[in-house]
Amino acid sequence: MRKKMIAMLLAGGQGSRLYVLTKDLAKPAVPFGGKYRIIDFPLSNCVNSGIDTVGILTQYEPFELSEYIGNGQPWDLDRMGGGAFVLPPYQRNTGRDWYKGTANAIYQNLRFIERYDPEYVVILSGDHIYKMDYAAMLAEHEKKGAAVTVAALRVPLSEASRFGVIIADEEGYITEFEEKPKNPRSDLASMGIYIFSADKLKKYLTEDEADPESENDFGKNVLPKMLEAGEKMSVYAFEGYWKDVGTVDSLWEAHMDLLDGSDLNLYEKDWRIYSRNPVMPPHMVEEGAKIEDSMVTEGCTVGGEIEKSVLFAGVTVEKGAEVKESIIMPGAVVKSGAKVSRAIIGEKAVIEAEAKVGCSCENAKITLIGPEAVVAEKAEIEPGAIVGKEAAK
Amino acid sequence: MRDILGIIVCNMHDDLIPQLTSNRTLGSIPFGGRYRMIDFALSNMTNSGIYDVGLVPSKNYQSLMNHVGNGQEWDMSRKNGGLSILPPYAGERGVYRGRMEALYGIREYIKASEAKNVVLSDSDVVANIDLRPVIKQHEESGADITLLYKRSEVFREKKQCAALFFDECGKLLDLYLNPELEGIQNIYLDIAIIKKPLLDELIAECASKNEHSFVHSVLMQKKGVLNIRGYLFDGWCNKLTGLRNYLDASLALLQPEVRKSLFPAERPIYTRVRDEVSAKYGENAKVSETLVTDGCHIDGEVEKSVLFRSATIEKGAKVKGCVLMHNTFVGEGAELEWVITDKNVVIPAGTHLAGSEKYPLYIPKDTVL
Asked: How near does any CA of chain A get to the CA of B292, in Å?
């Protein structure tokens, strides 16, 4: 049976604005929400939307991500005649290229799409935290008989200039695109999620590839070309939480949103987010510990005080340590007497005794301690500082 | 290690905790927040390189089968061998009376294996045991049977307790069941390694004599004939002996040295993954000396307890010395002390319940107070 829709997930992002967090790690593999990595969100959305074939396009630091995806089993993507596939750039008889842009990355994998011969292809990115039913979007795409449907979110007009802005008619057909306009005329921001009818995708990607002027980007090149050619392009207005976690501040904010729970709620049982599980015992709250308004997961040992924070798997916060408004990634250790405020602590970082990281004062800048970095005993790290593994030594 | 076959008999001790086994096998009793008893036996096999494992349940095994599935969580979903669930044929004998009878029912499975030795285990022991040195000793000593034991006092609950005595060469001299002995003894853990051809002979012999017990018909009767030896397990371990012991063992997990022995990073205890979200602590949460599992919502006070997946403790509730299983709900202002709740129990707001440390109060599955 011909597949209705497969997903192509762009997971090559370097995420340079996450600095040390993505030094050795692709952005979609950055830990999120206590038990997850960013890529778990689009992957789980796929599975919850009934998509059983996902091509994951990697390029930057693919090793950890490939290992994480494995055979796709945690997401129920170990399927016969489908499943999860990691697709790095590869050599072919015409030579080899890195993925040059979003459109080129898909173009280089057209043969993968053809193998499954789906009617539709949904293009996703591995940079965002959101829960979305792609099947509902597909239903609208089919109903409108569009060549492509672009998911969009209403944002405050003042912020629209950061996005690709969509201008649509009353029936929801796109009439114009503006890429990061200075004076936006619409509050509909593109989310970088596209459903293409497969034949149209193939046609326009092939044309785009042949155009030497093109930057091979969906938003900048392919979609405007399709509009020019008079294709039916529809907009799918998404309502719900959606956050680009590509900066230190936005990654921190998204975790605070998670603790607040009103916009981003992971506890809903009908739309679970799946992840590869680290196999650790339940977490231990020791005598004298104090945990308030926080999320804590397996393998943690908490002896100190935790307030408004998210602890990932296997984190240790010793007695007498204080963690406030912070994100402590897997395996990190905060030793006795250390104070961590408004900070992101990378995987396996160590904050030695009596050290002070960041400041709890309102509006203090977010401090970032990189994976495996060690903050020395009694050291003080100023708010807004970024400390990498090498720098700290 | 394809030359070792693991066999886990799941229902051997169901009658010890009738409360917890009314609708499950002993192997599927929830333990330690996210585990089931069988996880320890299975993980010990996996971590010792034993991937060919037969599970022998006798009754009430739906929850067990649901839990272990195809064995994939223990890396036992294999093309050749792997995990096999071997329910009894409901033949003339019906449900097995003892271990040897259970093994008789799966004799063909044992025969088909190419293993040289068989590890026999029950699912009533909570421990992280590396079986590799045991197997090594078994092979090097030339023993026919090697018995795992721990050093502890004879337990006086209704559980059968076998105390082992060895001669100066380490051979089994004698074995006493439920002896009136004081002080520290060698207590058999019901985990044994036995040569496979010998096991097959013994199964046939027991069947022909209508005998069914490994301890009585093999260990006691053959101790002079066979080379039976012991192996001392010196890590933390608990053999379930009843409801009070269940509470004691659960609360023992709150001690760091116990967790260290039970959950070393290099030999994880595997279990079925449930994809719960992290535990969430509210503004009013006050938690101390407690093991908390993912999916919990805590806004009340909890002390010296074990909380399983998705337990909810509402604001103003107080929980002390309790084991609250999956999806237990404790309403606002409720107070619980020395209580064990089974799955899906609802304690409404304001309810006060108390057992005692030596006699915990048990509330059955799905009870809405």
From this structure: 5
Model pLDDT, residue B297? 98
State both tokens at B92: 């003339």
What does the pLDDT average to over B45-74? 92
Closest CA to A227 of A324, A127, A146: A146
Q: What is the DSSP letter of B16?
A: G
Q: Long-range contacts for A83-86 (Cβ within 8 Å, ≥24 apart)? A: A83/A52, A83/A53, A83/A54, A84/A43, A84/A54, A84/A56, A85/A53, A85/A54, A85/A55, A85/A56, A85/A112, A86/A56, A86/A58, A86/A62
B293 contact A CB<8A:
yes
CB of B291 within 8 Å of a chain A CB? The answer is yes
| Residue pairs spanning A and B at CB distance below 8 A | 100
Using alpha carbons only, what angle is made at residue A22 by residues A18 and A27, rounded to the nearest 5 degrees?
Answer: 85
Closest Cα in chain A to B297: A295
> CA separation (Å) from B48 to B51, B109, B191?
9, 21, 14
Nearest CB to A285 within list B32, B282, B287? B287
Residue with tokens 């908490």: A302
Per-residue tokens: B224 = 């002079």
Please provide the DSSP assignment of A244-293 as one string: E--SHHHHHHHHHHHHH-SS--TT-TTSPPP------PPEEE-TT-EEES
What lies within 8 Å, CB to CB, of B108 at 6+ separation is: none
pLDDT at A158: 86
- Which residues 304-343 of chain B have a CB within 8 Å of chain A? 306-307
How far is the C-alpha of A275 from the C-alpha of A384, rounded, in Å? 30
Mode of pairing for the β-strands spanning A31-32 and A36-37? antiparallel
Contact B293 A277 (CB under 8 A): no
In angstroms, how far is the first alpha carbon of chain A from the final one? 58
CB atoms inside a 10 Å sphere around CB B93: 15
Task: Check the CA dihedral B341-B345-B349-B350 and report its sign.
Answer: negative
Q: How far is CA B126 from CA B26, B189, B290, B300, in A?
A: 12, 10, 19, 30
Return d(Cα A255, Cα A243) in angstroms, integer.
Answer: 11
CB contact under 8 A, A282 and B293: yes
Write the single-letter amino acid at B186.
N
- Inter-chain touch B259–A281, beta carbons under 8 Å: yes
A313-349, pLDDT tens digit by residue?
Answer: 999 999 999 999 999 999 999 999 999 999 999 999 9
In what helix (H) or strand (E) does residue A121 lie, and over which residues does it extend?
strand A120-125
At residue B352, what is the residue type? H
A288 contacts B281? CB cut-off 8 A: no
A365 neighbors A341 (Cβ within 8 angstroms): no
Q: Do B288 and A74 touch (CB under 8 A)?
A: no
CA distance A224 to A205: 12
Say what percent of chain B tops pLDDT 90.
82
Q: Give the whole-number percent of chain A exceeding pLDDT 90.
A: 82
ipTM of predicted complex: 0.92
Q: How far apart are CA A29 and CA A11, in angstroms?
A: 9
Distances (CA, A) of A208 to A9, A106, A170, A222, B287: 19, 11, 29, 7, 59
pLDDT of residue B155: 82
Instruction: State which residue of chain B sits closest to A313, comparing Cα positions.
Output: B278
Is B288 an 8 Å CB contact of chain A? yes
Q: Is B260 on the interface with A (CB under 8 A)?
A: no
Contacts of A84-88 with CB under 8 Å at 24 or more apart are: A84/A43, A84/A54, A84/A56, A85/A53, A85/A54, A85/A55, A85/A56, A85/A112, A86/A56, A86/A58, A86/A62, A87/A55, A87/A56, A87/A57, A87/A58, A87/A112, A88/A57, A88/A58, A88/A59, A88/A62
Half-sphere exposure of A63 (CA within 13 A, CB side): 5
